[in-house]
Every structure is written in C-alpha cells, then in structure tokens.
Fold each of these.
Amino acid sequence: MEIFGIPSALLGSQLLVGLINGSFYAVLSLGLAIIFGLLNIINFAHGAQYMLGAFVALLASKYLGVNYWLALLLAPLTVGVLGVVIERTMLQRLRGLDHLYGLLLTFGLALILEGLFKNFFGVSGESYEAPEALSGGVDLGFMFLPLYRGFVVVAALGVCLMAWYLIERTSLGATLRAATQRPDLVQALGINVPVLITATYAVGSALAAFAGVLAAPIFQVNPVMGSNLIIVVFAVVVIGGMGSILGSIVTGLGLGLIEGLTKVVYPEASAVVIFLIMVIVLLLRPAGLFGKQA
Amino acid sequence: MKRTALAAALFTAFAAPAMAQISDNVVRIGVLTDLSGTYSDLTGAGAVYATEMAVADFIAKEKPGFKIEIVSADHQNKADIAANKAREWFESGKVDTATELVTTSVALAVMEVGKAKNKLLLINGAASTPITNEKCNDVTVHYTYDTYALANGTAKAVTKAGGKTWFFLTADYAFGHALEKDSTKVVTDNGGQVLGSVRHPFPGQDFSSFLLKAQSSGAQVIGLANAGSDTTNSIKQAAEFGISKKQSLAGLLMFITDVHALGLKTTQGMYLTDSFYWDLNDETRAWSKRYFDKMKKMPTGIQAGQYSSVYHYLSAVKAVNSDDTAKVMAQMKKTPINDFFAKNGKIRDDGRMVHDMYLAQVKTPAESTKPWDYYKIKATIPAAEAFQPLSESRCPLVKK
C-alpha cells in the first residue's frame, strides 16, 4: 500500500521516529518554557545542562557503577543543584534587567561548560549502553521498534504531563504563576518569592538533565550534543509561544512529526523545515501558536 | 678596530640575503585545523602536537641553519574563516606553509588563497578527490589519503566479499558527495549495484529516519559516506534498530578514534581503510608511543601524516636552502618519502602523495588483548593500486 507514493510501512516508521524525536523536543522546550514563563530568562545554558545530564549518567556508571534507573534520578538532581548555584550566585543579580543580559550570561555559561568538557573528554565522547531490561525491541510489522525508544516516548510524555498538571492545575502552580505576575503582592502574602524562583530554575535545569539521560543511550554522549540540539529547541519554543507550557509540549511533538515527514519526502530540507515554519509562524502570529498576544 | 667591526657588519648585512634564501631566516608552519568541532579528535590538537614532534625531531637530527616556528588556528570547519586566516598568515604573518586543512570546503578555499599568494599547502585532513583533480594546483600536496583510496579499499573489499547491493547514507556536503561518487564507481566496477542513497544534513544527530530508509531499500550493505560524530551516531543507531543484524554497515571513512569512542562491541567485524595503524611494526609503535605519552590517545592516520608531511617539507627546505614555493615543491616531488608513515612514498604531478594503504577489520572484544588493540590488518594495498591512477586524472597539471 502506498500513501502519496510513499510505502505506508516507511511512512509509519518515519512518523514513529518523528514522534520519538518530538518527545525530546517536548521535554527540552518544556524546561525552557518554564524558565522563561516564570523567570523571564532565556536560558541558553539549557543545551549544556542537557549534555551535563548525559555526562553525569555516563561518568556515574563508569566510576561508581550507578545503573541507568538511578542515573535517571541522580543526573537531574545534580544538575538541579548546579541550577540553584547558578541562579543564586548569578542570575539573581540580573532580575529586572533586559532579557538580553540573562541570555548573554547563560550563553557564556554554556560555552564555558562545553569548553571544559571538550578539554577533558574530546569531542567524540563515549557510548552509554541502554539498560538490559530495555535492550532489544519489538517487530511492529512495519518497523522494528527498539524498546528503549518506546520507553523514551512514554517517559517524556509522562514528565511533560506531570509538569503541565503541576503548573496549570495545582495551588503550587497557581502561586508560581501569581509570583511572576505580581511578585510584590505574593511576597506580601507571606510567600518567599526568591526561593520559589530559585526552585523553578532548578526544576527547569533538571528537566534538561532528564532529557540528557534519556538521550544518552541513543546518541553518542559528547560535549557538543547539547549545542547541536538547542537551536532547534529554541525554534520549537518560539513557534509554540514563549513561556506557554502546553504550547511547548504540543509543538515539540508536532514538529518532530513534521521533521520526520520531511526526511521521507525531501531529506536535504530536514534541517531547515523547522526554521521555515518558525518564519511563517512569526509572520502570521508573532506571539507563537499558543502564546497570548501582547 | 671600530672600522673592521663596521665593515664586518656591513658585509653581513649585504651578504646575508645572498647566502640564505630563507625569508627572515625563519620557516613558519601554520597548522590550520578543527580545534573544537566534530573533527577535533581525529586531527585538531593531536595534529598540532604531531607538528611539534616533527619540528623537534628535525632540529635534533638535521641541525638546520634556520629557525622554525609553528602557529596554529581553529578554522571551525568554516571555509571563510579558514581562507581569511590563511590570507592573514601569508600577507602579514610571514607564514610559509599552511598545513592539515581538514574538511574539504576548507581545503578548497585555502587552495585558492595559497595559489594567489604562491604559498605551499600540505593537506592531510581533507579527503575529497577534486583536490588533486578538477581543483588541483601546483602549490598543493594532498598527503595522507583521499576518498578514492577509501572507496577503493573498503567498497572493493566488501563488494568482493559478496555485498553486491548498496545504499548510501551521505553527509550533504562536498566530501560526502565525493565519497559517495567514488564508492559508487568502485561498487559498480566490481559487479555490484547501488540501489539508492539519502543525503543527511551535516552535522546530524538523529539518523534513525535515514537508516530506516536504507533498511527499506533492502540493500545488503549500507555505506556510510560521512565522518566523525555523524559516522559514530549512524553506527550506534543502526545497532539500536537491529539494522546491523540483517544488513551490514560499511564505514567508508572511519578513524581509530571513532572505533575507540563506539567500543568494540558495536563496531566489531566492520571493514575500514586507513593510511596508518599504530600497531603495524616496531617503527609505528615507537612513534605512536611517543605521541600517546603526551596525548593519551593513539594517533589517527591524519596525525601521523601531518608529522610525516611536515618533516618532508622541512627536509626539502634544507636541501634547497630556500623557502621559495616552486623550489621546495620541486624538491619534495623529487625525493621519495621513507619514514614510519610511508615507505617509498611519492608526490605525483597532480599533488597526490601515493603510499601503501591498509584494509583493516575491527577486532571482536575477545580478540583485543590490550588497550587500543582494535584492527586486524586484512591487506596492504600497494601504493600503485591504492590511489587513482594518473591515467584517470582530471588535473590539468598532468601531462598525458
């Protein structure tokens, strides 16, 4: 059977692969959206934090024998703590200034982190094995689906939904959103706003690290893995609408699918298609698909 | 007394240019390479260190009457950055030769600058055959390897071993295209058939879509016409999707650093063609050990070739006592190269340095007995067969 002249098996498998990539985009852009939405900071260090997550998993397994499941907790925790340090010592001083300052600071941090890792580990990096329980795969008839990739989709979507629920549907989330709108009022109600903000940045960074651990068995763990991905993820956030939680999740998955389709139809354009969509969206809806018009 | 001193000073001042024809009596070697990007492990800082080794060895052994200096820069795999840096070196930096030049687009851009400024170029990292064909010029030596030699080694061996149908996964830039083109010719010449190819953006990250396309083509062999992290990620993901079980992968450009990064479990059994292996003989082991002591990694062919080419260049400068490009080039072409890297190596009219190449198979984890013990050398491809014959050359400098 063929659809638009493409064998349906090929189309099905490409869409599934697109969905897998989309779930990476979703988790990463979610972290960015949370940080931007609640802190008004464009976190350019997100790619480096994703890379750090993968490296924590790799090094912990190599030197401490920590297994994958533990790494899935340990890496976000470690990078989250680093996030606290970054927020407390640096980002806090930039509050109230133009977006550009936060962007430059985090961009600088990303370059430093990447440079340090390149210096110690080289650019080729190392391989990280998928856990035993998830190695192998299932034959879906139209494609062979590695179990691990299936797990990635489930884990990523689970985390995304949890984050969305926490921010949009709980009283903690309501407090957070209120704190971004009127920090002075929330503070007056006896809530410690600076702590809330620090915690938010830590959670955003931890999400990046979580995606890093998810990615470690799929991609070669190397210092540039984050910078290769981060530009695309920023495009996703812009398309979805800066700061929109649901927007970033839906756009992440959707763009993964579109990218997958492009790889079937015209592979040469697969690196550009997301940016093309970004241009169109910016022209028609400058606030993004899910953003509120200012 | 004063007058004699003055006379002596005057004499030296006038006589000096006639005696030594080396401009300012310093030979400056520029290493223009990828120091931070996707190719920095297989060349990069290692190539700079190999250059330093060559210069130190040359000074210790040959005791030249001129000084030698090394400058290096990161071209970030961008042709415009590389061309600007080379121009700056040649115009105001008093640099005599630009070397290494990984990434085809970089090499081609710097070749234009070298030709315009009449400066000698030693290309080691870049691999495309156009360098010594359509784009050839008389100031360039292409030293370590090229896409023809890679295809001729790996694609021939795999096709002859029964891999008759091929599908290419190609990096979408000059190098990938050249490698695909050269490999296609070798495959069809040896009775094989190319079923299709897919071009992926460079550098890429997720190759599963392309690999699934290759899988659905039903080809026996998936040829990876890419390099560096693109190759390692392709191989890793092919294993993940169970593709490597039914179809075999042929890495058309793989380095020992790639095998090291992926591990033997993933790469075992793969064929590859290389210009150098550290564990070939006592000479290669001795040199590689010195390299390893500093870099903590075994050298790639590019890094070993960088040493050899710089040493050969310096020997020629000393022999003609000049850093004039035409004179040095003539001397380099006249003298055979005999060192740990090449035996009876020869630079042809088209600038191609021909030497033996090696067809290797990656060992299984059980076969590997010590660190970096990765290759079984299956065949030595003699210089005369390894590279494109001059009769097929498309370089105008070759008189037929």
Note: Residues 9-19 of chain B have pLDDT under 50 and may be disordered.
Amino acid sequence: MIVLRYIGSRLLFLVPQLIGIVLVGFVLIKAVPGDPATLMLGPMASADSIAKLRGDLGLDQPMPTQFLIYLEKLIRGDFGTSWQTTQPVLSDLRTRFPATLELVTYGLLLALLIAIPLGVFTAATKRRAIRKLGGAYGLIAGALPDFWLALVLVFIFYSQLHWLASPIGRIDLSVVPPDTITGFYTIDSLLTGNWEALVSSVQHLILPVITLGLINAGPILKMTQSTMERMLGSDFSQYERLCGLPRQLIVRHAFRNGLPSIITIVSVLYGFLIGGAVLVEIVFSWGGAGQYAVQGVLNSDFNPVLGFVIFSALFSLIVYLIVDLAYLAIDPRIRH
Amino acid sequence: MALIRQARDEPLSVGSKKPVLETDNLTVSYRPYGLPPVEALRKVNIKIAPGEILGLVGESGAGKTTLAKAIMGVIAKPGVVESGRLLFNGTNLFQLSEEKLNQLRGASISIIVANPRGELNPLLMVGQQLANIARIHMRVSARQARQLALDMLKAVKIPDPVRRFRAYPHELSGGMAQRVVIAAGLICSPQLVISDDATSGLDVTVQAQILDLLKKLARERQTSMLYITRDIGVAANFCDRIAVLYKGEIVEEAPTGAFFEGPSHPYGNLLLAAFSHNSVLRKRWSTELEQLQKRETPALACLFVDRCPLRQGRCWQEHPELRDLTPGRLIRCHYPVLRHRP
C-alpha cells in the first residue's frame, strides 16, 4: 500500500518534470542557429518560398507561441514530422528507440555480468595483485574510446575471421524483421517463432553488445570494488567475522549493503547510454535513436531532436523510479 | 555471590578446573609502514578459570582492545603477534587454521561489542542475525535456529521478543541493541565471553540492569568472562578478579575485594583516586601534565615512572618484573603501596 502511494506521488511529479524538460529542450534547440526552411528548400529557393514555408511551419511566430503550439500538439500525441524522413517523429522513434534500447540493455547486462563478479572478487580477495588487476581494468576501460574498440572488433571478427555477418544494421537485409511487439528484434522473433530473424539479429547484436559491455564494465567494476571494500571493512562485517560467520556469507551481506551504490551507477549509465552509445550505433549503422537525434541536430530538424529528448527523459525518469523502488526493497531504513 | 577467588600459587587448576583461557607471554606490536613499531601488549600472562569473571581495567591505549582482538584471532595489519601462546582449553589458538578459528569464534569464544547499533547488519532483522549465528555454529535447521534466537531474546529480557525478532537494528534503542548483542554473544553457550567496553555507551540505570542480566546469564551457563572496561566502579561490582593493564603490561592483579580495599600499584591507586570525590586524594596520585618529566624515559625504566608520584632512582634504571606480593596478588612495582590491614 505504501509502495503504491509512493509510486502514485512519483508519477504525479512526472508531468511537471516532463513539461520542464520539454521547455528547456525547446529553448536550447531553438537557440541553435540554422533555419530548417532554407535547408529543406535547398540553395536555389527564392526568398518568397522560404518565407511561405516558414509561415506554414509556424517559424515566424514568437517563441512562446511556438512552444505552446508544440506543447498542445504533444498532448494530442503529435510529436511533429521529421522533414528528413518525411515520417511522423513518433513512428520513427517507435522503431528507433527500441533499437537503441535493445542494444544498450544487452550491453549493460553484459557489463554487469563482467563487472559484478569481478568487482566482488577483487574486493574480497586478500591477494593484492588481483586487487590491482581490478583497478587496471577500470582504468583501461575508462581510457579506451568505445568506437575504437568497436572498429577493432569488426576488424578481427568480421574482416579477418569472418565469424559474423556484415556489421550493418540490426538484421540481414535479406531477412524479414519480426512483427513488432516490444520493438526488441530478439524478443519479438522469439515470441513470433521467427528463428531466422532471431539468429540474424543475435549475430548483429554480438559485436556492439560486446563493445558496450566491455567499456561500461569499467565504471561498474570500479564502483563495485570500492563499495565492497568499504562494506567488508565496515563495523558490521567485522562483527560478523567476530561471530564466526563464514566468509561467503559475510561477503554476501556486504554485497547487499553495497547494492544501492551499484544500482545507482547502473541506472545513471542506462539513462546516459541512450544517447551515449551513438558512436557505436554509427560504427554498426544501427539506425537507433541516438543516430536519429544527431542527424536532426546537424540538419536543423527540430522535431526528431525534441522527440528524442522527451523519450529519453521519460525513460530516465522511469528508470529512476524503478531504482527508488529497488532501494525501498533493499533498505528497511528508507521505508520509514 | 559465590566468588571464585583463587590464590595464584595454587593456580586456577584446582581439581579439574584448568583455566579456560591462558595467555602465555603474549606480545603484540603494531608495525606501521615507515614508522617504528609500537608494542601494544608486552608479555601478558592472564588466566581465566571456568565460570570466573576477570576484569581488565586500564586507560585507553593500554592495549585492552588489542588483547580482545588477539584472543578473537583478528589482529589486523599492521598488528603482529610477536611471541607468546594463547591457550584455549590447552590448545594454542595461534596454531589453528583460519577455518578452525572461525568455528570457535561466536561458538566457544564470543565477544560483546560496544556501539551495537553500528555493529549489527543494518539490512537484516535482528532475530535473523541471531538465528544465523545459531544455524552456522550449532548446525541446526533454520526453524530451530529461529526458535533458539527467540528464546535468547526472551532470556535477555527484551520486551515483546516476538515483535523485536522482526525489528531492524535502527528500530532499536541503544539498550535494546545492547541486549541483542549480548544475546548474540551467548546464543551458542560459549565457554568464554569477552565484553569490550560493552555497556559504556548506555545510561547508568540501563547499564546496571544489563550488567545484572549479563552476570546472571554467565553464572547460569558457567561462562567465563573477560570484562574489559575503563569504568573501575563497574569492575568493582561485576568482576571476581581485577587485572590492571598499563601500556601493554599487567601491572597489578588481585581478587576484586582485595584490590578495592587498597591497590598496591601506584597506577592502581591513581585509577581509584580518579573516581574519588576527594580532590586531595586525586591530587596526591595524579601527576600534573606540566610536571611530567620531559627527559627521555630510558629503555629499562618502569613504564609508569614518568607519572609515578612515588618513583625513586631505581625506577629509572630497572624495569620491575611481575611478582607475588601476597598469595593471589601480583604486582609490578619496586615500591608497592602497603597498607596495614585491620
């Protein structure tokens, strides 16, 4: 019951938060120089036709009016149209946002699989050399650019070894993508029993997911290791040792106490990677949301950019809500 | 009170009563990197008989907690056990593997800590923490362990034990958390319980209740105790025998009654006088800080010489050995304070 009320109050705050984000995003994007009308009509267009298009697009209105018009459309579920794709932004994002989300989710899962056991182990071990190894991994993963690692992986596993399909897009051009249910090709193809699509999409996921996983395991490993060291050195762990509890149990208890810090960094990374994975998306021609937004920025195509901002803000807010609920489940002190 | 006071000469092994714990010339030092080592315990010899409560008093920095850690086998770097033996029921604990030690800790030797709310796991129900200890050491089922934990919570007189079983540490008052930690220390009916300044953070009235309870439980279970404290008043009421630790050395050891009738070591007198309301008495035994001799204490001097109001020339040159003063009383002083007994 308390939890439901908590969720309710948080969702109530979601609306003003989103309006604030839209406002700031709108103002900042409009502040970027560049006139879409000029770009849309090309260099040969007459001043008259540009002025007419500006009027049609509402660009001649004062900024507050433009914002209100945008907001009013938004409430009706209209995110505007991208002049580059000539599609409604909403339908573009419906395919592109899940594409990025699928990539980032699997990437983070891999990062967790690498970082958590390694972080716990390097913190719990008594051997200094292994501890140092954990620190070294964090340093290297932090220093390597993700797109560089992506290119190296493509070079080795595609160009040299030919183990994988050509690293372009989410699925082979010759394979029919699965019907959209969640937007995740892997899950949709599983649900519809489209095995050919499953194999192909997994093949295309492998390299970018490994890239994101290896790079993002760095900060998670670092956080896990330092949190675990702190927890294992804390009074309650020392006391459990004095009580003769087995080391495994002490480590498990310490991990549970350190979990909030680890969840925090994972949630921050999750929100960040929606836009932050764009270089990896470009290397693999992923056609995701990040790429979509960057093209929008470069071509003064405002609607996709704003749509991306709203989508990723909403996503981050949902992730943070889930994180808060996780804290609530873990720590009895917060329930009061 | 059936105090077990035994003379040193007919050592604590009267009949079959071998000491539960015996330290044999235990020396522990801290060797911080790049700094000269500091001896925290110097050839400490103590014995605790079954069912006996030995009080260990001394100021902070005397090595009390180091002794507790040494007995629990958790001396951490830069601490090093330099020499000596630590005999528990005749077994040298320093020769046991970490795994074997872990089976003793919490089961045969347990410790009751101060600041219990900081020591308990904040994310686990306190009853569950007790049950964990019971389940692991006594190899009982989870259900039996929970029952044992509940019984123990009742034994330490926690009000509403069924509800408190499900409480988290932050929901307990200091006194209640202290009871939980006592329950944790006693749940496996250990042979030796160490209490390290355990009740010092509590209100005086709560402290008295908890000490009574602790003593009652220890007596019922024939548990020996090493009661470490800075509060000499508490030690007077609680312990069978008193050992005074100063700079890592035992300087005096006596049955409680005899000690409080009149300590023999100048430092023992200083400790008692410090608790006195008589300012003349206090002044007589304490040395003002500015009066402390600035000169370097020679390596062979008595460790207390710079603060001793009774020091003489010999004290600067010759380190006193621990010796029998009267049967059952040990003293490390060339010029002990002697009183005429009525």
Note: The radius of gyration of chain A is 24 Å.
